[in-house]
Amino acid sequence: MAASLWRRVGLRLNESVTLDVGDWRPDLGAFGELHVRYGKGSQGRGPRARLVPGIDGVDVLLRWWLEEVRPHFPGDHTDPRAPMFPGERRSAAGRVGAQGLRNGQAGAVERFLPVWSGRLSPHGLRHFCASSLYGRGVDLKAIQELLGHEWLATTTRYIHVRSEHIEQAWVAASARVAGRLGVGGLAENY
């Protein structure tokens, strides 16, 4: 579940660890909102809170997690202060640690994506999120807000475009210009 948050909405590993059950607010926004209370502030300025929309199926996943899976872990799963991701030890209702999530993700990669073993990290999934959203046409500023970056330049370093992206962007831009001018597509000439 945590890896899905990294991949779909670009949460950081440490942000995932600090989430509580009550941080999911399905009543906010069109998709619900995840309150990231301990987002990373830039240049050591301390936590920077933000609301992350439950886009890309995160709303459905969180509902499933909280209703079907989370009740099987120790502790009161209805307490808003309970950890979203508890540790797996039955003797304590504590929070899973960053290393536990990191190890779990590494084990899943080794088992299901062996070619990526040792190369795919939680932070790599954050980059995948930014690149994927950008590739689907999401605005850079929106991606910046989602990831919690103070500077747009930081966000651009997260985006890795596929080789055909430039050509597709040119064709789309040409079609927009042609539509405004009321002429045939400029791309047809090439």
Spell out the key features of this protein.
190 residues; single chain; three-stranded antiparallel beta sheet; globular; mainly alpha; 45% helix
Low-pLDDT stretches are none
User: Into which percent range does the helicity of residues fall?
Assistant: 40-55%
Oligomer: single chain
Average pLDDT across residues? Answer: 89
List the helices and strands in order. HHEEEHHHHHH
Structural class: mainly alpha
Using only C-alpha atoms, the radius of gyration works out to 20 Å
Strand order of the largest sheet: 1-2-3
Q: Estimate the strand proportion.
A: 5-15%
Shape assignment: globular
Number of helical elements: 8
Distance between the termini: 46 Å
Can you characterise this structure?
This protein is mainly α and 190 residues long. The chain is 45% helix and 5% strand. The protein has eight helices and three strands. A three-stranded antiparallel beta sheet has the order 1-2-3. A hairpin with a 7-residue loop joins strand 1 and strand 2.
Write the layout of secondary structure elements.
Blueprint: H1 2-9, H2 13-17, E1 24-25, E2 33-36, E3 50-53, H3 58-69, H4 98-112, H5 122-135, H6 140-147, H7 152-158, H8 165-181
Briefly, what is this?
The chain is built from eight helices and three strands, in the order H-H-E-E-E-H-H-H-H-H-H.
